[in-house]
Amino acid sequence: GQSYEIRMLDNRKLGELPEINGKLVKSIFRVVFHDRRLQYTEHQQLEGWRWNRPGDRILDIDIPMSVGIIDPRANPTQLNTVEFLWDPSKRTSVFIQVHCISTEFTLRKHGGEKGVPFRVQIDTFRENESGEYTEHLHSASCQIKVFKPKGADRKQKTDREKMEKRTPHEKEKYQPSYETTILTEVR
C-alpha cells in the first residue's frame, strides 16, 4: 500500500523517433513474478490471490500523487496491471502501490519466509495509423520484494548484518545500495 515514485523519462537519442514528438505514448505497468518457476503458474497464483482477497487489486496508481499522467486505467480483470498515457516532453511521475506482499506466494505461511521476488515491468507503446497504442517502443523492469513495514525493517537489518560479516572480496559481488533504482531495459 506504500506509494513509490517512478519517473518516466524520454531517453531517445537526438533525432531518434521524431514521429512521437508532440504525441502521447501509453505505458503499461505490470507486477509479475521474477522467478521462472512461479512464472509458469502465474495465472493460477493470481487466481488464488483473487479468491482469498475478493475486490482487492495487486497494483494501483496513486492518482493524487502522480504528475503528468493522462487517462489512468486499471482493468478489473487484470489485478496486476495499470496503464496510462503521457507526454514524453513533459515531467511525468507515476506513484504505484503494490497491495500484496512477497510472502503471500510462499508455501509455508508461519513467518520468517524469504518471500518471492516480484518484477515491476513497464512496456511503452506509440499510436499506430488506426489510433491504437500497439507499436512497441520500450520495455524496462526491476526486481522488487514487498513486505509489511515491521517485516521490511527486520529484513533490512538482517541483510545489513549479513553484509557486515562478509569479507571485502565477497562484498564486491553485491551491488551497493542506492536512493533510486534505474530500471533495466528489457530487450
From TrEMBL:
Main localisation: nucleus
Listed Polar residues bias regions: 177-187
Subcellular location: Nucleus
Domain annotation Grh/CP2 DB: ranges: 1-187
Pfam families: CP2 (PF04516)
Keywords: DNA-binding, Nucleus
Taxonomic superkingdom: Eukaryota
Region Disordered, residue ranges: 148-187
Compositional bias (Basic and acidic residues): 150-174
GO CC aspect terms: nucleus
InterPro entries assigned to the protein according to its UniProt record, in alphabetical order: CP2 (IPR007604), TF_CP2-like (IPR040167)
GO MF annotations, alphabetized: DNA-binding transcription activator activity, RNA polymerase II-specific; RNA polymerase II cis-regulatory region sequence-specific DNA binding
Protein name (Swiss-Prot/TrEMBL): TFCP2 factor
Taxonomic lineage from the root: Eukaryota, Metazoa, Chordata, Craniata, Vertebrata
